[in-house]
């Protein structure tokens, strides 16, 4: 019987807090570094539900999704396996605290994001900041 090796669906969430701050998590597990809150979609779960669940598990924040931003599918975006991530923009109130597979959760001004970002999250955040400045989405 043939084994099918399909990409795994994931979600990431750009959580905006007051003062143009963005929530990032520091990952406990490899690859280590800062990342957007997110993770794998469970069977029977919508992408939107997964994004809200993962954000809550990793940051303790209740996120209201504002819009679907973009889907990232470069086969090399995750060094562990081929994943496809649908990225959402959401808002929340309060201060994050890391839990689940996040060693910590912290806010960063959009003008001072850390450099040691995991996966393709540097690209995602660069696209997001350009979108916020210009209203233009990433070109395909």
Radius of gyration, in angstroms, nearest whole number: 14 Å
Helix content: 10-25%
Q: What is the correct CATH architecture?
A: Alpha-Beta Complex
What is the name of the CATH topology? Nucleoside Triphosphate Pyrophosphohydrolase
Beta-strand content bin: 25-35%
Oligomeric form of this entry? single chain
Number of helices: 2
Number of domains: 1
How far the N terminus sits from the C terminus, by CA atoms, comes to 36 Å
Structural class of the helices, strands and pairings?
alpha+beta
Please write the CATH class name: Alpha Beta
Tell the overall outline.
Answer: globular
Q: Low-confidence spans: pLDDT under 50, at least 5 residues?
A: none
Sheet with the most strands, sense and barrel status: 7 strands, mixed
Q: What is the CATH H-level superfamily?
A: Nucleoside Triphosphate Pyrophosphohydrolase
H/E element order: EEEEHEEEH
Query: Care to count the β-strands?
Result: 7
Mean pLDDT: 95
Q: Care to describe what's here?
A:
The protein has 2 helices and 7 strands. By secondary structure, the protein is of the alpha+beta class. It has a single domain, classed as Alpha-Beta Complex (Nucleoside Triphosphate Pyrophosphohydrolase). Strands 1, 2, 3, 4, 5, 6 and 7 form a 7-stranded mixed β-sheet that branches. The model has no long low-confidence stretch (mean pLDDT 95).
């Amino acid at each position: 019987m043939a084994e099918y090796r399909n990409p795994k669906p994931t979600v990431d969430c750009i959580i905006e807090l007051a003062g143009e701050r963005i929530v990032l998590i520091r990952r406990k597990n490899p690859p280590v570094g800062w990342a957007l809150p997110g993770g794998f979609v469970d069977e029977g779960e919508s992408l939107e539900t997964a994004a809200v669940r993962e954000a809550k598990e990793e940051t303790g924040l209740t996120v209201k999704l504002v819009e679907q931003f973009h889907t990232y599918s470069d086969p090399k975006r995750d060094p562990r396996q081929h994943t496809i991530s649908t990225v959402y923009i959401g808002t929340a109130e309060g201060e994050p605290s890391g839990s689940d597979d996040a060693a910590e959760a912290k806010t960063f001004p959009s003008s001072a994001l850390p450099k040691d970002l995991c996966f393709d999250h540097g690209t995602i955040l660069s696209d997001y900041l350009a979108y916020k400045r210009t209203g233009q989405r990433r070109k395909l």
